[in-house]
Amino acid sequence: MTLPERREMPTVYEPAEDSRLLAETAAEAVAADERVLEVGVGSGYVAATVREATGAAVVGCDINPDACAAARESGVGVVRADLTTPFAAGSADVVLCNPPYLPTPPEREWDDPLEYALSGGDDGRRVVRPFLDDVGRVLRPDGRAYLLVSSLTGLDAVRELATAAGLEAHERAEESFPFERLVVLELTPSSA
Ligand SMILES: C[S@@+](CC[C@H](N)C(=O)[O-])C[C@H]1O[C@@H](n2cnc3c(N)ncnc32)[C@H](O)[C@@H]1O
User: Fold this and answer.
1) How many separate domains does the chain show?
2) Does residue 135 have its Cβ closer than 6 Å to ligand 1?
3) Ligand 1 centroid vs 98 CA: distance in angstroms?
4) Alpha-carbon gap, residue 84 to 89, rounded angstroms
């Protein structure tokens, strides 16, 4: 699966290796009759790839209005939202998320939309934490989420947060780079 040509989207996250790993993993894991929500949809690359590969109904959300507009251009239905807050309980079979996951020193806390797309706060888990807290509510009881994180985010800490939120976490895919390992965690409600 190849990444798209670079586009001039200065305020929207450009699809990168993390996007590709999540898209490939989800394209293999999603069935045509499933309802999929991508949280932090960005350019729409992951959502559009999964929809095209599987035929599933995919909607996205993002906190950045420019990302919402870009994803709509790629044909994805999008809601501007903070994580999963507006979505009904049990409304998704599958939730996808490639969140901001890079630890950011406090003195470098970023405030423009593109930088906000990357900054995971001082521990890298600023967005991962509330995502894990609410994603189980949005999932159907037999649903699952695919969360992209990095070794820089603290994989053990992410697993602990998932357990505390009532989710089981299993590594579904990974790719190693010189300075980090990208991992897709499959999250399922513990009672499923
Ligand atoms: C690393 S980018 C990933 C974009 C796209 N999913 C991809 O894989 O190429 C993270 C995205 O999450 C969005 N985001 C950050 N915080 C968010 C929040 N609280 N609610 C919704 N989206 C958020 C950012 O605007 C950005 O588009």
Assistant:
1) 1
2) no
3) 7
4) 10
